[in-house]
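Sample A.
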Amino acid sequence: MLADLHQARNDGAHISTINFIRDAPANHVPIERVMESLLLSGDRHDVDVENVIQIGVLTIPAASIGGINSFDLLPEPVKNCKETAYERRKLDSKLVPCWGSCLVPIGAITGPHMDYCGCSQLMRHIYGRKLWLCWPPTPHNLDIYLRKHYWGAVTLPTEDAIDQLEGLELLLVDKEQTCFMLPVGTIHAVVTLTMGCHTGLKLWRMEDFEVAKGMIKIQSEIMDQRVRLCQETFKHYQKYFRDLKGELKKWDELRRKNLANGMEIQQWLLDIEQALRRYLQ
């Protein structure tokens, strides 16, 4: 993963450096300083945890040589499943999974949020001890997170999520490597108990289709009332729909693989593309 981080820096690839104390971007901090802080954030007993700078790196792309792509992390059932499509990129004339990794310090807390627009994630825990708090995408939870907190534009503190959301599930992952699925629309928070790292892969699954449609329907209803939004929230939503536009190709791939559901997906895609022309103009 450090090889991935080095190559991302050398290639000028997009990575997100986060100051977890301020819960804000810290992309101005040099990667070398981030790595130094992460080394101090290990399991050493001679380090005062309070003096560790709470800086981590998210969305580290897999390097073309070495790094995560040196290992076959994709389970066989996912590789050949007709009901699943996953993000890939070309590497040496072949398509490889497009993993995105995170390196975070001890004590980091990521508040309740959703990842991406309408896809699940296959998560591979690599190192460290983390507590995942996960809330399912029930109508109650989606209403609170999407309508009242505008898909994260208005912060939902972890303590409020525990009080207001339903169906909380806890997952404690330890030093042993493990693999788990984060279904589409899952609202989740993460508490990192030691320096930790994990990697994730976007998955589009037929079983996620109804939830994805429901989420995007709510987002569209909010965007259709744009006069009620402040400028910052409006820009936040425009970014959401730009990201969604990039994900539609994977839904189309899933349509071609699933003839039984092809017409329904195709009509939905046409409706979304028409809405996107309004939202992104």
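Sample B, a different protein:
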Amino acid sequence: MSWTFGIVTFGTSPLLAEAIATIREHGPEGSEVLVVGGDQHPEDADVWVNFDESIKEGWLTRKKNMIAEWANCDNLCVMHDYVGLEPGWASGVESFGNDWLTCMHRVLNNDGSRYRDWCVINNDAWMNPPIDDQKPPFAYPGRLLKYHRTEYGRWQYYSGTYFCVKREVMLETPLDEERVQNQGEDVQWSRFLYQKYGDRAFTMNPSAAVRLLKYKPPVPWQHLEPL
């Protein structure tokens, strides 16, 4: 099972080197580290893709699509430069197997609390028209799910902070490059996945985990009991 770890960066994060170090320590042996963004080739990265940040501010959709275009492996782990692999990541992934289209792992905040990983959100991120006329079966804007729950595919959403995806899936169903950071691009992409693949688009593997290398304040609904 070969892996490309695709890291998106603006090149100013002091955590990038630490993120790469966790991949070398806890990722599968021989994994490819591909960095998109920044102004120089990061130390210990296998591939660096230069990116002109002046073209469009916050153009993360393009950067993430470029990971699939440049990757040499079938399994992609797409992550921001402040995400690090936890011990046991490689064994947790290997034991789970390779039968998935996209896959989420446990995501921990820097303090060890649960961050947005296996979750749902009650809107289609300004898609016009929305993908259907269903009404969300939960009251709050979003909710974390218990890791065994799989019946919310229509409302499933992957945070853009971290996710795993087959390279072929990413090439066939790319992010919308008309959108930039904080325009609901991750919710929209999740809806694209559901439209194309249905419930089988989303898979959870709680045996592997990552941790944010800096603390990020949770949104209010993250404090609610998971569904």
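Observation for Sample B: The first strand starts at residue 3 and ends at 8.
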